[in-house]
Design goal:
This protein has 225 residues and is an alpha/beta fold. It contains 9 helices and 12 strands. It has 2 domains: 118 residues, 3-Layer(aba) Sandwich (Rossmann fold); 100 residues, Orthogonal Bundle (Arc Repressor Mutant, subunit A). The strands form 3 sheets. It has a 5-stranded parallel sheet, with helices on both faces. A 4-stranded antiparallel sheet has the order 6-7-8-9.
């Protein structure tokens, strides 16, 4: 496994890199946000560990830029900011997980391994996403409801994948907007509702098929198993 570590605290970065190496994980280290983003966009990593507060460019900005570039990279954000609104802001920017300082190295390693498994489409666990009768094969780029194939546009595919990765969890419209349209800040939030309606129509493979996407009033949507 190869990990990108973006951390300006050199002592902490050295400690994390040493722990990762002991586990057989190669760590490439950047001490500022600009270099970290450049490495994320030009190299291939299994996971990125990114501190929130960085010189030149903060971790949230790195997440947004990586998602805007559509780089498939799981990101674990590290920060001393532990308030709920801070965690929401970090996740909304495109981070996949969030770990508050100080943390146990065992938990850091566990989260890195979990993120690597989640995104590894070469492994059986990562290649196929399932939620009830919905099944998406990332390697083959196919999506089925039961035995019925579902044809999706690139944006519909990205939205469907995001819903499947968060099966039975409520996602706010803001979360969906920031994840799917992070590359286009001019897109308005009503676009989320439009594409949810597109997906609903395509998931209605039979006249009697139940609606798999639940509207959670005042918040967002949930894909039901």
């Amino acid at each position: 496994m190869r990990v990108l570590l973006v951390e300006d605290d050199k002592q902490l970065a050295e400690l994390i890199a040493r722990v990762l190496k002991r586990e057989g994980i190669q760590a490439d280290v950047a001490h500022d946000g600009d270099l970290g983003l450049e490495m994320a966009l030009t190299n291939t990593y299994d996971v990125a560990i990114v501190d929130w507060m960085l010189p030149k460019r903060d971790g949230r900005s790195i997440c947004l830029a990586v998602r805007r570039a559509r780089v498939r990279l799981p990101i674990l954000m590290l920060t001393a900011r532990g308030q709920v609104e801070d965690r929401v802001s970090g996740l909304d920017s495109g981070a996949d997980d969030y770990l508050t300082k100080p943390f146990a190295m065992e938990e850091l390693l566990a989260r890195v391994r979990a993120l690597s498994r989640r995104y590894d489409i070469t492994s059986p666990d990562g290649a196929v996403l399932e939620c009830g009768e919905l099944r998406m094969n990332l390697a083959e780029h196919t999506c089925y409801r039961g035995d019925q194939p579902i044809e999706l546009t690139p944006t519909e595919w990205e939205l469907m994948e995001y819903l499947l990765r968060n099966c039975n969890q409520v996602l706010s419209r803001e979360q969906i907007l920031n994840r799917i349209w992070a590359h286009d800040r001019d897109v308005q939030i009503k676009m989320v509702d439009i594409y949810i309606s597109y997906l609903r129509r395509k998931l209605q493979t039979q006249p009697t098929s139940r609606d798999l996407i639940e509207t959670v009033r005042g918040f967002g949507y949930r894909l039901k198993p």
